[in-house]
Every structure is written in C-alpha cells, then in structure tokens.
Amino acid sequence: MICFFKNQSMAFPTKIALFLAMFTLFSITEGGMVGVNYGRVANNLPSARKVVTLLKSQGINKVKVYDTDKAVLKALSGSGIRVTVNLPNEQLYNAAKHQSFATAWVKYNIVSYYPTTQIEAIAVGNEVFVDPRKTTMYLVPAMRNIHNALVKFKLDETIKVSSPVALSALGNSYPSSAGSFRPELVERVIKPMLEFLKSTGSYLMVNIYPFFAYEGNSDVISLDYALFRENPGIVDLGNSLRYFSLFDAQIDAVFAAMSALKYDNLDIVVTETGWPSKGDENELGASIDNAAGYNGNLVRRVLMGGGTPLRPKANLTVYLFALFNENEKPGPTSERNFGLFYPSQRKVYDIPLTMEALKHYHEHEHNAGDRSIPPVTGDRRVYTRAGESWCVAHEGAGEEKLQLALDYACGEGGADCRSIQPGSTCYDPNTLEAHASFAFNSYYQKNKRAIGSCYFGGAAYIITQQPKFGKCELPTGY
C-alpha cells in the first residue's frame, strides 16, 4: 500500500523507488559510522598483516590505534582502512615544550606513511585528565604544536587533531541537561581545547562506557536502558526530552557541557565504547549475552542514522572497544575481556559490523562465536517484554526523515495503512506525525514488536501508554 496525503509530498510510485529512499535513509553514508579500537596489550595476538585481513573480512574500514607502530601502519598501507593514530601521554611534555619534537614526530610517524596509509586523525594523549603523571597542563600546547607540524607539511586540512576525554571530565552528567565540565578544568584546559577544536574544524573525542555506570548503579539504572533494549525511557525534566538509552543520555551530557561554555556547534566522535563479555563476581552485567546485546544494538543504532534526543540530526561515529581480548591488561577481569574476537581470530560473539550484515541480524543470534553456549531455537525474530507497547513518530527527526520512513512503512515495509487514507477512520488528524505514528505502529505490531522494528533511522520510538491522535487510537496485536 502506497500512501498519498494532501499535506505531504507524493510518496514514491514504485517499490524500487521506495527501496532506494530507504537505502538512502539507512545507508552508512547517510547514517553513522562504526570503527574499532585495535589495542595490543597482549602477548598472543596475530600479526598486523593478519589483523588487517581480519578487519577487511569483517567490512571494518575505520580503526583506531594507541601508538604509531611501524608494523601496524605498514600493514594498513593500501588497505583502504582509515586510521586514527595516537601520540602517547608520555610524549606530551616534549610535544608541548618543543615544536621541533612535534614536527619531527609528525614527519616520522605521519608523513612517512601518508597517504598510502590513510591516517585521518591524531589523538593527542588519551584520557589525560585521569593520567596519574599529571600531564593535563601539556595537552593543549601539544595539540597546537602537532597541528602546526601538519600545517608545515600541508596535511592540516585532511588530518584532524583532537584528544579522547573520559566521561569523568564532567563534573555533572545526570541529568543530561545539567551536564557540565569539572570546574577546575574549565579555564585551564577545557575552554582552550574546545577553542582549538573549533578553530581547526576538528571534533571532541569522547570515551563513553555505559557498562561502568550500570555496574555501579544497577539499583537505579535498568539493564534494558543500558543495552538499547525496549524500555519506557526516562524523561529529563531539564529539557523535557525522553531518553531510551544510557549511551544517548551520556553523549547529550557532553553536548550540554559544551553548550554551557558556548561551544554549541562542535561534533563528538565516540572514540571508545564497549561492554565486557566476562568479569569478576562483583562486576555486575559483564557477560557474553550483555556484551553482544550492547554492541549489536549500538551498531544498529549508529548505522541506521539519527543523532541523540538533544541533537537528532547529528549522525555519530563510534569506535568499539576493542578488537581483541587483551591478556596483559591490568585490573579486574573485565579489562581483559572487551574484545569482539579472541586472539585466535574466532568471534567472542556474533554481531553485525556493516549495514549488509545488519539486514540479517536479530539480537541473541550471537552464539556462533562460543560453541559452549547452545544455539537459540524457535522464532528468533521475537524478543519482547511483558506488557503492551506502541511505536510512534519522533517529531524531532524532521519532516524529511519522517516522510521517507512513512513511505517505506506503507510500501516496502508492508504496514497496513488503509486507515490513514483520505476518508478512512484515522485520516484525521491529517498530520505527518499522526500518519507516520499509525504506519510505524502497524509495522511494529506486524513484526511482533521485535527489537529494532521501531527505529526507522531514529524517526520512531516506543511508548508503553496507548497513544491517541484525535479520535484514532493506535491498536496493538496485529
């Protein structure tokens, strides 16, 4: 059924056009991008060349590394994989104090490999604010000197400079609308860093781990909320926005913190996020099921496009942590079990990493990587919670995205849209939001409220109270 409405543009006349529209809506180029962190704190990892072959086999075209290892950068040469490299914290002092050091570092570690190795960004330091070596004061001067070196070699337009900050850089992160940076950092480093990013056209790198927030606050944070699963959401009373994932709430806290300092237009790249597949007894939530749920649902959420409630049009770039389990990392068991792969290159669990793989993915179909877990049987499409729920349009998604999603739902998606045709029971109110909500809900209920069937590239969300538009109530149980 193809829908035509007086107040909307004519829907596409053929199924081919509908498919193309949705491909545009949900494609990687229009949506976000997913990369992976390639850490090497281990003594049993495959060679760099084998790792590049693995990355390419999985369709991963963005990788972040924690140094400028010669073997790694050579292996990536000609691969088409875009790389973010790192100037380690221990080199910040020299890079900050001596322009000659920064220039030599760029010449040796960047110019020597670029462009056959597609270096696209330099992370200057990593989580410097929590570095016990007290390197914070050197961060911004080091960033400036590295950028000056890129200017010298005429690479400043193509290679960005930033620095990954942990969420602990915020003095307040809840609710999201109250997000603010730690007061002692603001004048000394945060504002100079944000000004540098703005002036160079760069972005803020942020490391975000909902796992740690859930682990420490499981009495008030639901697991479904942390894992992008169906949940009623949480309303932020400060901005009246409803959040359906802890990930989005944490990102918006950073956006709010930047906005409070008048840096409203800077983008964010999530340079680390992930969930451990194993932990100590006191590490609540660390399991293969939860790791697969978090990372699989995160990939879906990023690739299908759409930003956060505060910035709904800002597509995200996210780097999963990490490629491998790393057996020499210190700390609790979880630290050694964030990997998507074992060092043998066998998957820890099976999740999609590309748009093509996402077409066939349903959460809980991730056990192929670990043969000790019995396969899921029965109808794998249906993973719902008790109680009724409905899928409605997200008005903040914008008219263009809502219209494309509505056309898809009523066309290729097979939703029953007869009731919103002119003269039918739910035609009034004749608004895009009301018609889209009816179509989205039809698609959602038809697919038995399967996880992921109420998203439409960020144009829809789930509620648990039956909605009503005029005299039309959205039904359940198609």
UniProtKB/TrEMBL annotation:
GO terms for biological process: carbohydrate metabolic process; defense response. It is an enzyme of class 3 (hydrolase). Keywords: Cell membrane, Disulfide bond, Glycoprotein, Glycosidase, GPI-anchor, Hydrolase, Lipoprotein, Membrane, Plant defense, Signal. It is a lipid-anchor; GPI-anchor. It holds the Pfam family Glyco_hydro_17. One of its GO terms (molecular function) is glucan endo-1,3-beta-D-glucosidase activity. Its main location: membrane. It catalyses: Hydrolysis of (1->3)-beta-D-glucosidic linkages in (1->3)-beta-D-glucans. InterPro entries: GH, Glyco_hydro_17, Glyco_hydro_17_plant, X8. The keyword Thylakoid does not apply. Residues 389-474 form the X8 domain. It is found in: Cell membrane. GO terms for cellular component: plasma membrane; plasmodesma; side of membrane. Its EC number is 3.2.1.39. Belongs to the glycosyl hydrolase 17 family. This is glucan endo-1,3-beta-D-glucosidase.
